[in-house]
Write a structure and sequence with these properties.
Elements: H1 2-28, E1 54-56, E2 79-81
Antiparallel strand pairs: 1-2
């Protein structure tokens, strides 16, 4: 029983030491920024997002099977802007969501 009490004292002492160390470290950190130092909205207001329809970019093929494609021959993005920017609309009876139990494309 004495060793259990001694172990509890060691653990509680270690916790008290850790809290004091944390308080000391926090006191040495710089103060949080003032409201004047916080970021502000631009004069024109918030920036609005743009939406566009994208389509997959085709992977270029090598001229010969033994030829390797180099990084500069690849495109920088996996998709490109679609020529037709009209949003696709759902047509009643055309399809259902995956797993909805609907008849699918009829």
């Amino acid at each position: 029983m004495f060793f259990a009490f001694l172990g509890g004292m060691v653990v509680s002492g270690a916790l008290i030491w850790a809290v004091r160390l944390g308080m000391t470290v926090r006191d040495q950190e710089p103060a949080p920024p003032s409201p004047e130092e916080q970021p502000h909205l631009p004069d024109g207001g918030a920036v609005h997002e743009e939406q566009e329809v994208r389509e997959p970019e085709e992977m270029p093929h090598a001229a010969q099977e033994s030829e390797r494609l180099m990084p500069y021959q690849l495109h920088h993005a996996a998709s490109k802007r679609c020529d037709d920017q009209e949003r696709k609309r759902w047509l009643p009876g055309s399809s259902g969501a995956f797993g909805s139990g609907g008849p699918g494309h009829v």
